[in-house]
Amino acid sequence: MLSLNLLRVFNAVVEEKSVVRASEKLFISQPAVSAALKKFQAEIDVRLFHKAGRNLALTEQGAMLYELTKRMFETEHEIEDLVRSLNSKEKRVIHLGLVTIYERFGVEDILHDFAEIDKNISVSIHSGNSARILEMLGNKRWDMGIAGNVTLDKRLRYDFYRSHEVFLVAPKGHRLYGKKEFSAADINGERVVLKEPGSSVRATLDKFFSQDKVRIVLVMELSNIDSILSLAEAENCIAFLPDLSTKGLDKKLFSKARRKGGALSFSTYVVTHPPSEYTTAKRAIIEAFARRNAFEPGGGSQTGK
Q1: Angstrom distances, CA of residue 252 to CA of 169, 178, 240, 257
Q2: Are 256 and 169 in contact (CB under 8 A)?
Q3: Per-residue pLDDT of the chain (305 residues; tens, 9 = 90+)
Q4: Residue 150: how many CA atoms within 13 Å on its side-chain side?
Q5: Phi/psi of residue 42, each to 5°?
Q6: Which of 15, 44, 94, 122 is the most buried (most CB within 10 A)?
């Protein structure tokens, strides 16, 4: 069986390109490094180095062996980092960007998932529309995000998380109040309060309006759901909201309807950086979150083109 210590000496000499510098790195004497190399080459009966001026250069066989030892010791360092992080009692902070639908209606479940992964995780929640979340992730200000209707960015990767339906919401007294379904013709020319540009709901509606040639009268663009409902009631006009935010609607004041012939819907994605840009501890946390939510980071995901 090969000695791990001899492999470590070999790896250090290759990376330092010098027996002297390898001895300094390993905190052993130069003769000890030279003796270990000689013993290693004798044991495996393979010439690993040849002279290149004053430096040592790898033979073809030595280069093949180095590639394996390099991967092995990189993995060793990752394991050491992970063990240190797992034993650490310090809080590890994950900066998580959430679209407003989750920030208000799904955050407890998300925080519960992280707490189940590790009690020492501190999750800092940031809310915003999808465009804002992608911007902050692209600038490496946040660690991960959950956003919808994403535009692929080559700096990021995307894994499917959830699908959501968008409903028409009508206040009591409006002609569409009480309807269970609506068509493009039903809302043509209607006064509407819309979610702000950059949101998943707005992107879904803009596509619908364009494809079905729907003309609306825009009353106002807002981000806050309570404000949208209040304005729709005050102005006796309609609004469009995602499923989670319509579950608690007061049925005496509002009704909701889905589109005839196929729901208006959008997908949300867990958006992350490539694995190489995370510490070992953060990568382990994000991969654990992925497993709890039945998606595979990097496997079946979309990477920005």
Answers
A1: 12, 10, 18, 15
A2: yes
A3: 678 888 888 888 888 878 888 888 888 888 888 888 888 888 888 888 777 666 677 888 888 888 888 888 878 777 766 666 655 554 578 889 988 888 777 788 888 888 888 777 888 888 888 888 888 888 888 989 998 866 666 778 888 888 999 999 999 999 999 999 999 999 999 999 999 888 889 999 999 999 999 999 999 998 888 889 999 999 999 999 999 889 888 989 999 999 998 899 998 888 888 888 887 778 888 888 888 876 554 433 444 43
A4: 31
A5: -70, -40
A6: 94
Give me 200's structure tokens.
């998943």
Residue 193: strand pairing partners: 220, 239
**CB atoms near residue 56 (< 10 Å):** 19
Question: What would the 3-class secondary structure string for the chain be?
Answer: CCCHHHHHHHHHHHHHCCHHHHHHHHCCCHHHHHHHHHHHHHHHCCCCEEEECCEEEECHHHHHHHHHHHHHHHHHHHHHHHHHHHHCCCCEEEEEEECHHHHHHCHHHHHHHHHHHCCCEEEEEEECCHHHHHHHHHCCCCCEEEEECCCCCCCCEEEEEEEEEEEEEEECCCCCCCCCEECHHHHCCCEEEEECCCCHHHHHHHHHHHHCCCCCEEEEEECCHHHHHHHHHHHCCEEEEEHHHHCCCCCCCEEEEEECCCCEEEEEEEEECCHHHCCHHHHHHHHHHHHHCCCCCCCCCEECC
| 219: its two tokens | 């009353």
Locate 99 and state its tokens: 């679209």
Rounded-to-integer distance, Cα 182 and Cα 259, Å: 5
Q: Among candidates 183, 205, 185, 182, which has minimal Cα distance to 193? A: 205
Q: Which domains does the chain have, with CATH numbers?
A: 4-87 (1.10.10.10), 92-150+274-303 (3.40.190.10), 163-266 (3.40.190.290)
Enter the pTM of the model: 0.63
Comparing CA positions, the residue from 28, 32, 68 lying closest to residue 48 is 68
